[in-house]
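The authors assume throughout that readers already know how a fold can be written as discrete tokens. In essence, backbone conformation is discretised, so a fold becomes a row of integers matching the chain in length. A single example would do more here than another paragraph of explanation. For illustration, here is how one protein appears when written out as sequence plus structure tokens:

…
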Amino acid sequence: TILFVYCMSHLLTILDDVDMYERQKSFALGHFVTLSSVINQFLFKAIWSNLILDTSSPLFISLHSLLSVLYRRDNRRPFTKPNHWLIKDIKPKELIREMDKGRRSAALLIQKMPHIITHADRVGLFRRNISTDKSNVGVFQDQSSGRSTLVTIHRARIVEDGYRQLSVLRA
């Protein structure tokens, strides 16, 4: 199984667009759709049910690599239907709630397979994490005024502009 997965990853890496999409050499596009769906579902269920917790295992590495290659190819030039990569077995809010509770499998899914939830949900999670980090650091101690500081730094003068504009801020 692992040998097949590594060979398939290698094939997808060297297969050009003409051979993959037009000639459908080696495999039809439908085979890639089926393969991506099976691996996506398998990895989700294996991680969610705690069958895979070691991301350094050869099985996980090989399957995740192939899934990533398929996902990148589909992002660059779609061969799947919209929402193909989303997992219907779990709602994004539930996955995020489980991650907040400290469930390792939920955090692993978000880290290794973020495509299983919608882009909007990933952006919402990212913004929430930014807000949490800002409050932990104390950037928004005065939430009522919503004060923030705009700093403009030019690429050619990063150090000078950064020092000059940030030095006037009070600690």
